[in-house]
């Protein structure tokens, strides 16, 4: 490729070399490896991506040449383009040379911390490759897996769980803290990731939760054994051990009845609830995974929901049908009633392949009962006329199984099979003979005519298995046909040498039985047959003849066994049990390759048994600082707020100077005082008792001009010192201020001010302490001024009376959660965090206000902070924040930008730029931040709710925790999860909330009705069903955790 003078020609050739169809056809392009590797350092992104695709395919074959490009791959790991970084890691992990294991390990660790979820996903894919190359790296890889399991991105979840399954499936402890997150993310994960996660969670649940059908299964087992063995006639013959066993079983049955009713673990319910919607997935593997999860984990009453989804999959391709029917055949043995309503869906079509027909027959046989057997037998009669001989044989076997399982139709089935004996097709007759033989063993004395009829078929039937079955029947029940049996033996003796081995063995058995029951007529025939068998080519036949001769023909050398020959040959034999070949397959996990093959495949993880005692559920708890705890911390009352009057506070200030040596300990309190003093001094100099500038202005009228200048110099120094103190003071985060306001309004809403004035006074003082009206000079945006004015407006809404707060003053409360946008390591000292301020974005009310906080932890200043290259989904818009010219080292600055998410939770991707670097970042909003609160009366709420019924209404039942059973807690958690306002309600058992989406103004109504014992019902009415569905999930999570 050295001769190509343009990137276009190079790309054209690489497209040809890397064509997947060419690789799939087996065309080898490895000879071009040296020429392709030279282009790995090409600056053209398209060329580089194609080279990486080629290297992934051929790096393992040309390891030595690939090692020469490792330095280039390492540089690719630092490329700004996430596709190049991921491709470089993919190629690096495809070079299977042990010498570069440390390099691969380092690359995976760095990629696991990459800001791009696509690169982190590639890191998860590389983990199994490195583990297969060097299993000694397992401990280090487990650390990376643990880190990636904590990732909240849906793109990474499926890949890291796959890595977990490959490297350390036994480390269940890694799943504990991430269990609930995986359950909640499951609906948004890619389809193949959903399959992996569901299979893993199935095994996890079998080790962490109790069997939901435990009591029912034990009662059924106990009842069945008692009914089978516990007859009155056997009581006299039972020995003492049997009686002890019976008493023990009775005691166990009594204990089971007295056992407390089963209560499902909330996490168990969470898994079932979050996987149920996936039954509607378009991917058959996802539906099958959910079906097996419900079969193995769900209560018996809830498993039926999977039947309809599985029946839907039977309209897919034949390969999918085959796998689905294999699993349905296993399920239908234990859960027959689940598929009975869909019986006609298993009827066989003429276009079905043979293997599909056989499996459908298996399912129909499993579903057969006294109610539907007549319909099924009519179907079987039609199937027997098919031209597919294997299918006809399977149908005859299915008829035999139906006759065995359902005694009422046994005679009908037997008569139908006898009619098939006159069929022209020899295979049909042969299969009928085999099945009839098994059925006759159940009641031979009632069907001697059938045995006679079958004896006449020996002249026509040539199928060895059928001839052997007829001979066995005649020999076993020769007493019922004493005249026909010797004649059959005579005919068989004539053709003995030409028969198949299986038929010869049955001829010998027939001769022995007739010799023991009718030796006068058959003695010579028996000796003749034994002599023929003595010289047969098959050693089994020779041995059988020698053994039988010594057993039935007594001689001087005969042993003691000859006395018992009759008992040995003519003993009563149990009737055969016709069982389904899928009976014991459920010990394999459904949907697995092992279940399909009915043998343990490589890499199969055994499905654990249910635990006898419930493990500790607290291992899945994740420590989360609640809003109440956070506000309690924020609203700790400073020392100066304990003074009851302005005079006492002034006296206290006189005792202790404003700026003391111990200001490091009480910095926030003194800073708050200094800020208020500075502000009051700048506003007026005559109306404040605490204003130093005011008192000095009064004294200046009496003093001389020189003294006034000296005072002004001292005052200037003091003000300068105040500004330095305020500037050095750590600013209070905006989210903390909003949380304090939320606590204040919630307190005013749920208690009257008059009854709790001390509490309210403390909270109000703490609130005043948090609100800093003087922004630091480093803040280059008027956000703090805007916030202060809004806080004043909010405070004016408070009604400090004995009456409950009016609806107009009820605002949504919630703690503002901060998200990391850029880590300080990735940003080379620049860290960026963001939060959704829940304030109107003044330039455009249809945009969500996002507050971004920059912190420069580097030693040098950052310049020209701005946004570039916004990559947004269709309909989304972004309003950039003003460029920050300089951010000194150690300083923090906050700005506000607006984003129109277009009522979706898709991320807004853009570049965050400095004067030297560009960082790819993304902001993804929770669904609750896409809304803004609106005021509604109770009647308006009911009216709008009545118009949003049907598909626009989603209702879920839940159980509230003890901490969340109060009205205050419910309001707090709902408004934390979504930016909604409280709607007044006349009932204390119901909480209502209202809001609308920021972009389209679609109405969102939420109501929570509490009941006894912590039960509750959540109802969400929304014009946009997708928004409503996601909001239900978030509010449920907020109320149940």
Automatic annotation (TrEMBL):
Q: How does it sit in the membrane?
A: Peripheral membrane protein
Species name: Oncorhynchus tshawytscha (Chinook salmon)
Please cite one Gene Ontology biological process associated with this protein: intracellular protein transport
Q: What Pfam families does the record point to?
A: Adaptin_N (PF01602), AP3B1_C (PF14796), AP3B1_C_2 (PF24080)
Question: Where does this polypeptide localize?
Answer: Cytoplasmic vesicle, Clathrin-coated vesicle membrane; Golgi apparatus
Task: Return the annotated region ranges for Disordered.
Answer: 224-252, 641-730
Which keywords does the record carry?
A: Cytoplasmic vesicle, Golgi apparatus, Membrane, Phosphoprotein, Protein transport, Transport
Q: Where is the composition biased (Low complexity)?
A: 670-695
Q: Per the record, where are the segments of Basic and acidic residues compositional bias?
A: 644-658
For this record, the Gene Ontology CC terms, alphabetical, are:
AP-3 adaptor complex; clathrin-coated vesicle membrane; Golgi apparatus
Compositionally biased tracts (Acidic residues): 232-244, 696-714
Ranges where the AP-3 complex subunit beta C-terminal domain occurs = 761-906
Query: What is the role of the protein in this entry?
Result: Subunit of non-clathrin- and clathrin-associated adaptor protein complex 3 (AP-3) that plays a role in protein sorting in the late-Golgi/trans-Golgi network (TGN) and/or endosomes. The AP complexes mediate both the recruitment of clathrin to membranes and the recognition of sorting signals within the cytosolic tails of transmembrane cargo molecules. AP-3 appears to be involved in the sorting of a subset of transmembrane proteins targeted to lysosomes and lysosome-related organelles.
Record's family? Belongs to the adaptor complexes large subunit family.
> Could you identify this protein by its name?
AP-3 complex subunit beta
């Amino acid at each position: 490729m050295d001769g190509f003078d343009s990137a276009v020609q190079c790309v054209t050739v690489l497209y040809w070399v890397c064509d997947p169809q060419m690789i799939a056809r087996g065309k080898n392009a490895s000879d071009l490896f040296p020429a392709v590797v030279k282009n790995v350092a090409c600056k053209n992104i398209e060329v580089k991506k194609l080279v990486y695709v080629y290297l992934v395919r051929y790096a393992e074959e040309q390891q030595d040449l690939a090692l020469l490009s490792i330095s280039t791959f390492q540089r690719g790991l630092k490329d700004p383009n996430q596709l190049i970084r991921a491709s470089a890691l993919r190629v690096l992990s495809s070079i299977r040379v042990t010498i570069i294991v440390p390099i691969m390990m380092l690359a995976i660790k760095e990629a696991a911390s990459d800001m791009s979820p696509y690169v982190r996903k590639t890191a998860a894919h590389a983990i199994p490759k490195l583990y297969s190359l060097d299993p000694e790296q397992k401990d280090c890889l487990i650390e990376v897996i643990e880190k990636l399991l904590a990732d909240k991105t849906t793109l990474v979840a499926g890949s890291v769980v796959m890595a977990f399954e490959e490297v350390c499936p036994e480390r269940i402890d890694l799943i504990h803290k991430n269990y609930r997150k995986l359950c909640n993310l499951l609906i948004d994960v890619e389809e193949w990731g959903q399959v992996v996660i569901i299979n893993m969670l199935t095994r996890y649940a079998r080790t962490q939760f109790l069997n939901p059908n435990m009591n029912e299964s034990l009662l059924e087992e106990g009842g069945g054994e008692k009914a089978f063995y516990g007859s009155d006639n056997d009581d006299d013959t039972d020995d003492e051990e049997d009686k002890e066993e019976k008493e023990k079983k009775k005691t166990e049955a009594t204990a089971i009845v007295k056992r407390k009713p089963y209560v499902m673990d909330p996490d168990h319910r969470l898994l079932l609830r979050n996987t149920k919607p996936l039954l509607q997935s378009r991917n058959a593997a996802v539906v099958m995974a959910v079906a097996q999860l419900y079969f193995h984990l769900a209560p018996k009453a809830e498993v039926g929901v999977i039947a309809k989804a599985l029946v839907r999959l039977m309209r897919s391709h034949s390969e999918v049908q085959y796998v689905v029917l294999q699993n349905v055949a296993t399920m239908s043995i234990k859960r027959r009633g689940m598929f009975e309503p869909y019986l006609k869906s298993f009827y066989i079509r003429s276009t079905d392949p043979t293997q599909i027909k056989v499996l459908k027959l298996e399912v129909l046989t499993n579903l057969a009962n006294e109610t539907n057997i007549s319909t099924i037998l009519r179907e079987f009669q039609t199937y027997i006329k098919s031209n597919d001989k294997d299918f006809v044989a399977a149908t005859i076997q299915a008829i035999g199984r139906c006759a065995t399982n359902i005694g009422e139709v046994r005679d009908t089935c037997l008569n139908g099979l006898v009619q098939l004996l006159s069929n022209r097709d020899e295979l049909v007759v042969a299969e009928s003979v085999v099945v009839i033989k098994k059925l006759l063993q159940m009641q031979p004395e009632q069907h001697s005519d059938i045995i006679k009829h079958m004896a006449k078929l020996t002249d026509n039937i040539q199928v060895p298995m059928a001839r052997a079955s007829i001979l066995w029947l005649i020999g076993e029940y020769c007493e019922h046909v004493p005249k026909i049996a010797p004649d059959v033996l005579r005919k068989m003796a004539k053709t003995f040498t030409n028969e198949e081995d299986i038929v010869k063995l049955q001829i010998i058995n027939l001769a022995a039985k007739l010799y023991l029951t009718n030796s006068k007529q058959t003695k010579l025939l028996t000796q003749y047959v034994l002599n023929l068998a003595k010289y047969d080519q098959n050693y089994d036949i020779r041995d059988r003849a020698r053994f039988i001769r010594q057993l039935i023909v007594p001689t001087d050398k005969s042993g003691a066994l000859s006395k018992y020959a009759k008992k040995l040959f003519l003993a009563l034999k149990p009737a055969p049990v016709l069982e389904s070949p899928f009976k014991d397959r459920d010990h394999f996990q459904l949907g697995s390759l092992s279940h399909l093959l009915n043998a343990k495949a490589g890499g199969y993880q055994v499905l654990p048994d249910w635990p006898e005692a419930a493990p500790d559920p607290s291992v899945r708890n994740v420590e989360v600082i609640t809003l109440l705890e956070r506000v309690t911390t924020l609203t700790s009352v400073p020392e100066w707020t304990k003074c009851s009057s302005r005079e006492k506070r002034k006296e206290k200030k006189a005792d202790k100077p404003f700026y003391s040596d111990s200001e490091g300990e009480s910095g926030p309190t003194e800073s708050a005082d200094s800020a208020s003093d500075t502000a009051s001094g700048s506003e007026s100099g005559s109306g404040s008792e605490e204003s130093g500038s005011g008192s000095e202005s009064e004294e200046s009228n009496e003093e001389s001009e020189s003294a006034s200048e000296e005072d002004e110099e001292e005052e200037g120094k003091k003000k300068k010192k105040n500004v330095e103190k305020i500037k050095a003071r750590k600013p209070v985060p905006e989210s903390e201020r909003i949380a304090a306001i939320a606590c204040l309004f919630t307190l005013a809403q749920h208690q009257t001010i008059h009854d709790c004035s001390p509490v309210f006074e403390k909270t109000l003082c703490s609130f005043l302490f948090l609100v800093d009206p003087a922004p630091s000079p480093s803040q280059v945006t008027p956000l703090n001024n805007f916030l202060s004015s809004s806080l004043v407006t909010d405070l004016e809404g408070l009604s400090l009376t004995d009456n409950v707060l009016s609806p107009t003053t009820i605002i949504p409360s919630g703690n503002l959660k901060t998200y990391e946008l850029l880590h300080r390591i990735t940003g080379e000292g620049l860290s960026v965090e963001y939060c959704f301020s829940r304030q109107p974005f003044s330039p455009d009310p249809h945009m969500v206000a996002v507050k971004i906080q920059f912190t420069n932890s580097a030693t040098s200043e950052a310049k020209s902070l701005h946004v570039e290259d916004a990559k947004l989904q269709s309909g989304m818009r972004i309003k950039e924040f003003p460029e920050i010219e300089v951010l000194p080292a150690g300083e923090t600055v906050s700005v506000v930008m607006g984003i129109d998410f277009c009522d979706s939770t898709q991320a807004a991707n853009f570049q965050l730029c400095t004067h030297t670097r560009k960082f790819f970042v993304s902001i993804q909003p929770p669904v609750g931040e896409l809304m803004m609160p609106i005021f509604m009366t109770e009647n308006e709420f009911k009216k709008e709710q009545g118009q949003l019924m049907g598909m626009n209404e989603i209702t879920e039942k839940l159980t509230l925790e003890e901490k969340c059973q109060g009205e205050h807690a419910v309001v707090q958690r709902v408004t934390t999860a979504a930016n909604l306002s409280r709607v007044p309600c006349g009932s204390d058992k119901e909480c209502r909330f209202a809001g609308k989406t920021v972009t389209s103004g679609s109405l969102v109504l939420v109501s929570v009705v509490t009941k006894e014992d912590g039960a509750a019902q959540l109802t969400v009415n929304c014009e946009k069903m997708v928004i409503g569905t996601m909001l239900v999930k978030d509010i449920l999570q907020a109320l149940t955790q």
